[in-house]
Amino acid sequence: MSEISQNLIVFAPVLTLLGGVLGYFLAVFRANQQQAKLKWQVESLLQKNQLLVEQLMQTKEEIEKFQALQQEFIQAQKLIAELETAQKHERQNFEEKIKLMEQSENRLKETFQNLSSQALSKNSQEFIEVAKLTFEKIQQGAQQDLSSRQRSIADFVKPMRESLDKIDTRLNEVEKNRVGAYEGLKSQVDHLLTAQKELRAETVNLVHALKTPMVRGRWGEIQLKRVVEMAGMLAHCDFMEQVHHRGEAGANAPLRPDMVVNLPGGQKVVIDAKAPMSAYLEAMEIDDPTKKALKYQSHARLIRQHIKQLSARSYWSQFEPSPEFVVLFLPGEQFFSAALQQDPGLIELGADNKVILSTPTTLIALLRSVAYGWRQEKLTENAREISKLGQTLYDRLADLTQHLSKMGRHLGQTLQSYNQTVGSFEQRVMVSARRFEGLGIDSKKTMETVAPIETREREVISAGIGTGDKKMKNLGRENPDQS
After folding, report:
1. Residue 258 DSSP symbol
2. At a CB cut-off of 8 Å and minimum separation 6, what does 39 contact?
3. Of the candidates 365, 380, 395, which is a domain's last residue?
4. Which of 192, 359, 406, 476 is the most exposed place for a label (fewest CB within 10 A)?
5. Which residue from 220, 219, 205 is spatially nearest to 285, judged by alpha carbons?
6. Which contiguous run of DSSP H or E holds residue 268?
7. Where among 348, 380, 412 does a domain terminate?
């Protein structure tokens, strides 16, 4: 036995143990995620319940305030009744006093008439008038006393009546608020119950619908499409759905992956979304823990069988160039965690069979990495295009500089010939022509002096292409009148 075989025998248990530990920790991680999700849902329901309890407590406080105000109203009514009774008694007593005074007046009149009928016949009328005035003063004082008493009672009762009116108004408002609060609470509870019933019905409908293989497959494709859109890998640019491809040697059954993702560089990655979910959906409808566990075991077993079937299809050999693996997409984290809890060796089995198990979370990360690669590929293509444009621009600038240099040389030669011609014209022709002016030629025109064009060296600062800035001395030719 060779040394390599011995090392493999020694490290094989260690590698197996490491794989099991890795699978265990991954399963624990998935379970913690599911537990955190359930915990969040429970906390949300507890918060809603706490909100309802607070609303009930607030309503209870309003009711207690209403009852206290009602007691105060009853006591105020009793006090008003007592005051009205006392006022009535005072009025009766005053009326009785007035009657007694009237009776006394009558008796006094009779007595005075009897006593003074004869002796005081002359003064009787005066005495009666004095008595009448006295009685009127007494009656007026009594009337004023009654009015003041009535005003005092009215002033005393008025603030209480106003307070009672305010209490009555406040009680009506509290009653309206209480009725509104009860109606709002009842509406919220009814809405919550309706939403819960609708959610339960929709869940049941979804579970029943997903039992159909065609619907289940279509749902997996929709989930896959959503994941791809979230990752920025749209169908029209980076991936193809429902690609049909025949197997090796012209097999009759076509290979039908759910998606082929194009990688930068021309490579392709095959994604299959036909994961078995029937056993898991059946487990969700079972309340018995033992039967539910059996369905979960069946779910893990079906996932294992599907991994082996995908490995046997060898998609990577049909879509060349392609990495030697295929991605098995599970449309929910719960499907993967449930299978991994029952069979922790699924990840190692997939790796051995060139099948990578993926959930929406991990597939988004994978596709975003591919999208980043596409962006880098696009940047590389742009850089190559910019390099080509730069080369073309440089070549055209080189041609232009050659043409300009050639034109400059021709201009220099033309200028030199012009100056030589002007010098010869001035020395040989104009000398003789000016003699005509001395001979008295009558002409309205005068001959102008033809001056040569001076040339001078001008320092031109030019930015060099590719070699940095440098100073060049060109022979610039200018008209001295313009310089």
Report:
1. S
2. none
3. 380
4. 406
5. 205
6. strand 268-272
7. 380
Say yes or no: 280 and 348 in one domain: yes
Residue 132 backbone class (left: φ over 0; alpha: ψ -120 to 50; beta: rest) = alpha
Q: What is the pLDDT along the chain (483 residues), one digit of tens a residue?
A: 455 555 556 556 656 666 666 666 676 667 667 667 766 766 676 676 677 667 767 777 777 777 777 777 777 777 777 777 877 777 777 777 777 777 777 776 776 666 656 555 555 566 566 656 766 766 676 677 667 766 766 666 667 677 777 777 777 777 777 777 667 767 766 776 676 666 566 555 655 555 666 666 667 777 778 887 887 776 434 455 555 555 443 444 456 677 777 777 777 788 888 888 888 888 888 888 888 889 889 989 999 999 898 888 877 677 666 667 888 888 888 888 888 899 999 989 988 888 889 888 888 888 888 888 888 888 888 888 888 888 888 888 888 888 888 888 888 888 888 888 878 877 777 777 777 777 777 767 777 777 887 776 665 555 554 444 444 444 344 444 443
| Residue 86 domain flag | yes
Q: Are residues 151 and 227 in the same domain?
A: no
Whether residue 134 lies inside any domain: the answer is yes
Residue 230 sits in the same domain as residue 198: no
Within-domain flag for 191: yes
d(C-alpha 276, C-alpha 279), whole Å: 8
